[in-house]
Amino acid sequence: MHCNSPPTDRVYSHSSLSCFEQCPRKYRYRYIEGLVPERRGIEAFSGSMVHLALQHLHQHVDEGRVLDADELIAFLRERWEENIGDDIVIVKKDMTRSDHLRKAEAGLRAYHRHYHPFDGGRTVGLEHGVNFKVRGDKEHSFVGFIDRLTEVGDGVFEIHDYKTGKRLPTAAELRKDRQLALYEIGVRQNYPQVKEVRLVWHYLSHDKEMTSWRTTEELTALERGVAVLIDSIERCRCFPCRTGPLCRWCEYCEICQH
Prior knowledge:
Layout: E1 11-12, H1 14-22, H2 24-32, E2 40-41, H3 42-62, H4 69-83, E3 88-89, H5 97-115, E4 122-135, E5 139-153, E6 156-163, H6 171-175, H7 179-190, E7 196-203, E8 208-212, H8 216-235
């Protein structure tokens, strides 16, 4: 393992920060060496297919047509069969591929029942990219991709995020969530008409919506904390492996020498 520092003109994301926190070596493989993983976990694959189906659903809504639930599920199944391959692995053997597909279908049907006819605000973007700056002692470039950004009133924006995992967080945990709060910083920088931003999570497995807000002071503190984390990434030289239970799910576990 070479011991070099990453370039200081890097564009960061919530995912890259989380990757470094989880395992610096995984960060190096993905974001410095650019290694393409040879395997993907079924959970991540299923989540990506659900996100693709919800994007398809809301694209049609924006075009004036509401898909029925069966059409939505048919789209999911088509994309699932087109994209699943031998690179998709199941670490926990308590569920099969078919079980994961049925779980994804159930989550989509619950979402469809909950929000039909999908008239809650004007869609600004789907899988919406925002480029912005995070400022600490230095200014760092950031990019984020918002599952769905809507405007629900005069200057009132909602950042929507879809979750397909089993775990349901507490309200206190959501108050500390970094990802959507970072996206709020991006939205405020890109849309000067913003007066209020709501952070909205959709937990499809639980058919539950959870909402949170951030104060100006909290966003400022978040920027400072993220800048400190980036400084530690840019000072890093050897990117050590951080072993633990999640190693079994790591896309690079077959090439990583602990």
